[in-house]
Design goal:
With 258 residues, the protein is of the alpha/beta class. The chain has eight helices and eleven strands. The longest helix is centred in the first third of the chain and has 17 residues.
Length: 258
């Protein structure tokens, strides 16, 4: 495979991921066809590693890796090994409420690899002057904004509206999705009162327990930037199945997956 062809495969994988499709690039690292690459998605493949049986093995292994979401080495045959490089869409970070802390969350979240969407019914707040690098701005009521998004288990929804007439419709809309993280800003008192209103309105307790409220990790943050770190830290901890506590007090492995 020429360098141009290899670059084309990698570019296509990145383009697919950016458009919302999981893709895998299989590269032969041992055996015949060293350096050859193919592109694999859940329902298609492009290119060849030189042999039909090896191609079939590569596609099967790549799809297993796509389902697991993990890159790594794999054996294709007794003579061939490959590296499976997974390209996944950036996880969605939906920020409902274009307040000051939302600016820090959006900026930091984008640096962490999230696709950032900011939504607010007030165009004076949800605009490019305030959020110049957001991937998407939505001027709509919170529940309408959430309905416009493709929410997956990897998605996070951060509700910063701080007003029952905005945040409770947003929470109800968020709970109707399979978002892996739902957080809502508010004091302990506000969060407790909101919980009681949701339960009284008939929302199942197990569903209500999905809401991280008060939102964020307990780091004593006061500034918008510190609050953003607290919230994003909780999102990362939740994604990795960690408590978010001090590593000094933890006996487990330092990094998720180790």
């Amino acid at each position: 495979m020429t360098q141009d062809n290899a670059a084309t495969v990698l570019r296509k994988a990145r383009d697919l991921a950016e458009a919302g499709t999981n893709a895998a690039v299989v590269t032969v690292v041992r055996g015949q066809g060293l350096g050859a690459k193919i592109l694999v998605t859940s329902d298609s493949s492009e290119g060849t590693l030189g042999e039909g049986q090896v191609d079939q093995a590569a596609q099967a292994v790549a799809r297993e890796r796509l389902a697991a979401g993990s890159s790594g080495l794999a054996s294709l045959s007794d003579e061939n090994d490959a590296f499976i490089d997974i390209h996944r869409p950036r996880p969605l970070l939906a920020i409902i409420g274009a307040v000051h802390v939302a600016q820090a969350i959006q900026s930091f979240g984008q640096s962490l690899g999230f696709r950032t969407v900011v939504a607010d019914a007030r165009e004076a707040l949800a605009n490019r002057d305030r959020f110049p690098t957001a991937d998407q701005l939505i001027v709509a009521w919170p529940d309408d904004a959430i309905a416009q998004l493709s929410i997956e288990a990897s998605s996070s929804i951060v509700i910063l509206t701080h007003d029952p007439k905005f945040d409770e419709p947003a929470i109800n809309a968020a709970l109707a999705t399979n978002a892996g993280y739902i957080g809502a800003i508010g004091s302990r008192k506000t969060s407790a009162e909101r919980r009681e209103r949701l339960l009284s309105a008939g929302v199942d307790a197990e569903q209500v327990d999905r809401i991280h409220a008060p939102i964020g990790l307990d780091i004593g943050g006061r500034s918008p930037e510190e609050m953003a770190i607290s919230i994003l830290g909780e999102i990362i901890a939740e994604r990795n199945g960690r408590s978010g506590g001090s590593l000094r007090a933890s006996a487990g492995r330092i990094r998720a997956g180790e």
